[in-house]
Design goal:
Layout lengths: L1 H13 L1 H21 L14 H12 L9 E7 L9 H15 L5 E4 L2 H4 L8 E8 L8 H9 L2 H5 L3 E5 L11 H18 L2 H29 L3 H31 L4 H28 L7 H32 L6 H4 L10 H11 L1 H16 L7 E2 L11 H13 L7 E5 L3 H12 L4 E4 L3 E2 L6 E7 L6 H13 L4 E4 L1 H35 L3 H26 L15 E2 L2 H29 L4 H28 L7 H33 L8 H6 L8 H12 L5 H5 L1
Parallel strand pairs: 5-11
Antiparallel strand pairs: 1-3, 1-4, 2-3, 6-9, 6-10, 7-9, 8-9
Helix pairs in contact: 1-2, 1-11, 1-12, 2-9, 2-12, 8-9, 8-10, 8-22, 9-10, 9-12, 10-11, 10-12, 10-21, 10-22, 11-12, 11-19, 11-21, 14-22, 15-20, 15-23, 19-20, 19-21, 20-21, 20-23, 21-22, 21-23, 22-23
């Protein structure tokens, strides 16, 4: 592989104008496609095989036009102190708001009158208007949301408290702020790392081009492939991360080759042949992690994973072709000012070599400190509770949270998470089901059954005694399902969240086994070793569990919550663990491949195991640290979000990268390699013969280059291969 990539790198360097033109043309083509495509809505959300999904499908079939999966809103009114909502003046204000809603957006399916529907609290102080929409929350127009938010403006002026809850106010996730912060910090870190604005600008430029092509393609195909607006968010995050990483390592290797006296074209070829080989395998591990999301069997996640994987493939191709082409344009400007002026680079040990030497002297102490430290942080992960956020997890300053609290105070905590029971049967069966549910502990109220026109399907609303995300409500859902037969199905937002969390929990171990197993095999091919890939996989698991422990401590237990703006503790978002595994695994393997490949290269070229570790740190530690700092900055930019879900993802990914890069890769990895010595690179002979030799460390490439040089070919014959 190294030989092929060497040829590719030199070709891209020589034909830089053509290569640059092709990538710019692809960017323009993707941009035109995105601009001409219709506006994307949210991806249709479904959880195949779950009871909640079966009930939704049955409702769509038996209650045509009912929009069972449409958005809902509740406009909550509370009377001033000493007054009641049943008083004439207050009732007039509510009636006016109802009329405004009914005559408003054509996306509204129905609006209920609280006085006719009995939606007034027992003490008479609180009432609410239920609004149902024909489309889900992501598909609502801005005009429809604005009309909803303006509802009750006159009632507020009259002294009533008016707040709005429900998923109708759920807008598409905003993107850009975190990425912009990451790009700014990335630029600063790259300038410090390279000492050259040109060298610092190349990884940023190519990463932005890659993300631009990827996101534009996703936008262009969004409606055709039913890709939701959240798909672009994941693809942007991953594409920006790996795009900077891959370019960073190739540019760094190119500068190192120039420092050894290589000609520019040869240096570009060698950089792509060696660091580029690591890029290919690092990219494969990320693609495996993202494509592996398909095992969860949730179409939305599968599409997100494949789309993000496509962006990673683009990042790899750009690193192998566009980077050497741009290096050809940059010339000597890719080097620092001192080097361009002819000053020699100091051969004194850098921070990486000093740290590696320290670890080699005290490997047991460093290993125990790293493992025990991460193990202690991982302890809270044993108390992990998963769920999906509702309005109760919103900041207390939002209207959704205020409406949630008003309804809880006026009607009980379970009122915010009603369950919908669907009975596939006639009136008699539906009435019997109502009686059974009324006898189940945890049900605060059960409404009479509502039948469809054909009289063969009924809907029953059940109000739990506890809040939607509580364990008691989850037990109530299971109790109703256990008490009924296969024709009685429980659904609704609360039941769907419970089923989603269960599906994610059940898929976590199979997903881990698939991703880690395939990556283990891949790393065996890269490192020609059994113990090095095993160490990489175990180190990754340690860092991820520690990161989950930190997330539980902050967001579920509330430790240091105020420092990160956590206003409401609660269950960890169901998607968080598996999402963290996928993203962090890809980045962790990047650092492992880039750092240990340099060690393997030194070892293959004759250095002793300990000296090979020092050499690997000398050449790679600086850029690995820079890449990790950039990723931590990108992910930390999301911690400032007011959305609890985004805040949690940002914190979890940032702390996971910190643990993996600085504790596992920088401390535990060299300590383990120091203790193993030559055994670290042991591979059974039969396995050595069975595994393909991809020459990631460039040993075969160096021999061929040396041979052609001795023959007087000056590497020209190989360059033409």
């Amino acid at each position: 592989m190294a030989t092929y990539l060497y040829t590719l790198g030199r070709s891209a360097f020589r034909r830089r104008r053509l290569v640059a033109f092709i990538w710019v043309a692809l960017l323009v083509l993707a941009g035109v496609g995105a601009a001409s495509a219709s506006t994307a809505t949210s991806s249709s959300f479904s959880i195949p095989g779950t009871e909640a999904q079966k009930a939704f499908d049955l409702l769509d079939e038996r209650f045509p036009g009912g929009s069972a999966d449409g958005a809902t809103a509740r406009v909550v009114f509370k009377a001033p102190g000493g007054e009641k909502m049943t008083e004439a003046a207050n009732r007039a204000e509510v009636d006016k708001a109802v009329r405004e809603l009914k005559s408003g957006s054509d996306q509204i399916a129905s609006v209920t009158d609280p006085y006719a529907a009995g939606a007034v609290s027992k003490n008479g102080r609180t009432a609410y208007v239920s609004v149902s929409y024909k489309v889900n929350g992501m598909e609502l127009t801005d005009a429809a949301r604005e009309e909803l938010q303006e509802t009750g403006a006159e009632a507020r002026e009259a002294g009533l408290t008016v707040e709005i809850g429900g998923d109708a106010l759920q807008a598409a996730p905003e993107t850009g702020a975190g990425e912009i912060i990451g790009v700014i910090i990335a630029g600063v870190v790259l300038v410090i790392t390279f000492g050259s604005l040109v060298a610092a600008g190349l990884p940023l430029l190519t990463a932005i081009i890659g993300v631009g092509i990827g996101i534009s393609t996703i936008t262009a195909l969004a409606n055709v492939l039913d890709l939701g607006s959240t798909t672009a968010t994941l693809a942007t995050m991953i594409g920006l991360a790996v795009g900077i990483d891959y370019a960073l390592f190739i540019v760094s290797r190119y500068r190192a080759e120039l420092a050894e006296g290589r000609e520019h074209e040869d240096a570009a070829g060698r950089a792509v042949g060696t660091a580029g080989s690591a890029v290919v395998f690092a990219g494969l591990t990320v693609v495996i992690a993202l494509v592996g999301l398909a095992v969860v069997n949730i179409p939305m996640l599968t599409k997100m994973g494949f789309a993000a994987a496509g962006t990673v493939v683009i990042a790899v191709l750009i690193a192998l072709t566009l980077i050497p082409a741009l290096l050809g344009f940059a010339g000597k400007r890719v080097l620092g000012r001192k080097v361009r002026k002819g000053k020699q680079i100091s051969d004194k040990p850098n921070a990486g070599t000093r740290w590696a030497s320290f670890v080699l002297r005290r490997p047991v102490v460093v290993l125990l400190a790293g493992v025990l430290g991460l193990g202690a942080i991982a302890v809270p992960a044993g108390s992990l509770e998963m769920g999906l956020p509702d309005d109760g997890s919103q900041p207390t300053s939002t209207t959704q949270r205020k409406a949630y609290d008003l309804l809880s105070d006026g009607f009980g905590p379970g009122f915010n998470g009603p369950l919908m029971v669907v009975v596939d049967g006639d009136r008699q069966k539906a009435d019997r089901t109502v009686e059974v549910i009324q006898g189940i502990e945890g049900a605060a109220a059960v409404t009479p059954a509502t039948l469809n026109k054909a009289g063969d399907t009924a809907m029953i609303t059940v109000i739990p005694k506890d809040r939607p995300s509580s364990v008691a409500t989850e037990e109530l859902v299971h109790s109703i399902r256990d008490a009924g037969d296969d024709d009685v199905l429980v659904t609704g937002a609360t039941a769907m969240n419970i089923d989603f969390s269960q599906r994610m929990n059940d898929a976590l171990l199979p997903y881990l086994a698939l991703v880690v197993g395939l990556a283990f095999l891949l790393l065996m091919v890269v490192f020609r070793s059994v113990l090095v890939p095993l160490k990489a996989a175990l180190g990754f698991l340690l860092s991820v569990v520690a990161a989950l422990g930190a997330v539980v401590a902050v967001f579920q237990w509330g430790w240091l919550g105020s420092l990160f703006g956590v206003e409401q503790t609660g269950p960890i978002m169901s998607m968080m663990p598996i999402f963290m595994v996928g993203v962090v695994f890809g980045l962790a393997m990047d650092y492992e491949v880039f750092l240990v490949t340099r060690m393997r290269e030194a070892y293959v070229h004759g250095e002793r195991p300990g000296q090979a570790v020092v050499t690997g740190f000398q050449h790679s530690a600086r850029v690995v640290v820079a890449a990790a700092i950039i990723m931590i900055a990108v992910f930390s930019g999301f911690i400032g979000s007011s959305e609890q879900m985004i805040k949690m993802i940002g914190f979890g990914l940032a702390i996971a990268v910190f643990f993996d890069a600085f504790v596992v890769r920088m401390a535990i990895v060299p300590a383990v390699l120091a203790l193993l010595g030559h055994k670290a690179w042991w591979l059974p002979r039969w396995l050595d013969r069975a595994l393909p030799n991809v020459d990631v460390e460039g040993e075969k490439l160096n021999k061929e280059l040396a041979a052609t040089s001795v023959d007087g070919g000056e590497e020209r014959e190989l360059a033409r291969a």
